[in-house]
Amino acid sequence: MLPPFELSQPTTLPAALSALAAGDGQPFAGGTILVPDLRGGRETSRRFVSLSQIAGLRHITHSEEATTLGSGTTIADIRKDPVMATSAPALVAASKVFAGAMVRTTATVGGNICCGSPSADMVPPLLTLDAKVMLSSVEGERRVPLREFYLDYKKSVRQPDELVTAVSWRPLPAGSAHLFFKLGRRKGDAITVTGVSVMVAASGGKCSEARIALGSVAPTVFRAGQAEDLLRGQALTAELIEKAAKAAADQCSPIDDNRASAAYRLQTAQALVRRLLTQAWQQASAI
Ligand SMILES: Cc1cc2nc3c(=O)[nH]c(=O)nc-3n(C[C@H](O)[C@H](O)[C@H](O)COP(=O)(O)OP(=O)(O)OC[C@H]3O[C@@H](n4cnc5c(N)ncnc54)[C@H](O)[C@@H]3O)c2cc1C
Predict the structure, then answer these.
(1) CATH at 212
(2) Per-residue confidence at 188, pLDDT binned at 50, 70, 90?
(3) What whole-number distance in Å separates Cα of residue 165 and Cα of residue 218?
(4) Positive or negative torsion for Cα 77, 75, 132, 89
(5) Domain count, the chain
(6) Where does residue 285 rank: exposed (0-12), middle (13-18), buried (19+ CB within 10 A)?
(7) Does the predicted TM-score (pTM) go above 0.90?
């Protein structure tokens, strides 16, 4: 049963930030995590600050310098935006395998980033976009690379009085491919067992940039920096890709749970990194 709780509903960002600064509760966006957690007794807080009435948080803007998503942008908004398919193909791919239609119309990108779950599907593609997170409080704003946002399982650099207001990234390099694959126990409405996103850029037969992010195989979603370092400046042979896939798997620290064993996650992380790097290199080299 849903326990009683208080929900303030500010209609402007300054009012929401003041409410957070006054300790009026924690942010409540789409509620697709908070409501099940309240119902299931996993959420102990009973005071929340709703973000749903703040129109300025729900927007997608594209310019030559950057794409910016307001934190209130829903997963369904991402799927529908016509420019997103070129600005962030892997993010669109992730939005297509995200939950079911009802959850997608409510769940926000800000909630996905802030929940801190290692299985949050928007995060691997945002990491391979090298995205930055905008944090706002009554004190002002700060921009943090998403790569530096997570500290540990469900822990981030966000302070209780801060809201994530937006996430943005620069255009993908020319001649690049940006991919995502979600391995789940079924095709629809499944929590990710292993999630991988890669971005590979090719120039003059060499890999000019490589980014690899993995989800559900460590306490947080993370970039596989050692694997990326092996690839930059090289022509990607099958042997080198295998080495990088192994290096990415070596950076994983998965757990056994009711969806998969740690051993299965390790094996599939390596296989998916190998597969996505191979596909991305082929695509990027052909541009
Ligand atoms: C049936 C079902 C299926 C699901 N499937 C998937 C799936 O396939 N992939 C996936 O990744 N997730 C999935 N989820 C989880 C959830 O829907 C997503 O993580 C969603 O993006 C959370 O966003 P929200 O707006 O609902 O967050 P909320 O529930 O409102 O909030 C989640 C957390 O983030 C904080 N928060 C929210 N917005 C902000 C902000 N702007 N600034 C600071 N803190 C904030 C809240 O305080 C809370 O701690 C599923 C959930 C359900 C119920």
Answers:
(1) 3.30.390.50
(2) confident
(3) 26
(4) negative
(5) 3
(6) middle
(7) yes
Q: With 80 as the cut, is the pLDDT of residue 195 above it?
A: yes
Token pair recorded at residue 88: 């962030």
Q: Locate tokens 């950076």: which residue?
A: 251
**Residue to mutate, 33, 97, 197, ligand 1, most ligand atoms under 8 Å from C-beta:** 33
Q: Is residue 271 domain-shared with residue 195, that is, in the same domain?
A: yes
pLDDT value for 84: 96
| Alpha-carbon separation of residue 80 from 74, 83, 164, 226, 286 (angstroms) | 10, 9, 22, 35, 27
Q: Looking at ligand 1, which atom is closest to the CA of residue 33?
A: 29
Tell me the one-letter amino acid at 201.
A
| Choice from 8, 53, 79, 115 to test ligand 1 binding pocket (greatest atom count within 8 A of CB) | 115
The residue segments making up the domain with residue 81 are 59-169
Cα 104 to ligand 1 centre (Å): 10
Is the domain of 64 the same as that of 153? yes
70-110 per-position pLDDT tens digit: 999 999 999 999 999 999 999 999 999 999 999 999 999 99
- Top mutation candidate among 112, 117, 221 for ligand 1, by most atoms within 8 Å of CB: 112
Indicate the pairing of strand 163-169 with strand 67-70: antiparallel
- In tens, the pLDDT along 150-175 reads 999 999 999 999 999 999 999 999 99
- Kindly state whether residue 39 falls inside one of the protein's structural domains: yes
Q: Give the binding-site residues of ligand 1, using a 6 Å CB cut-off.
A: 26-34, 36, 51, 71, 98-99, 103, 107-108, 110-112, 114-115, 120-121, 163-164, 189
Confidence of residue 246 (pLDDT cuts 50, 70, 90): very high
Do 205 and 265 belong to one domain? yes
- Residues 183-200 have a mean pLDDT of 91
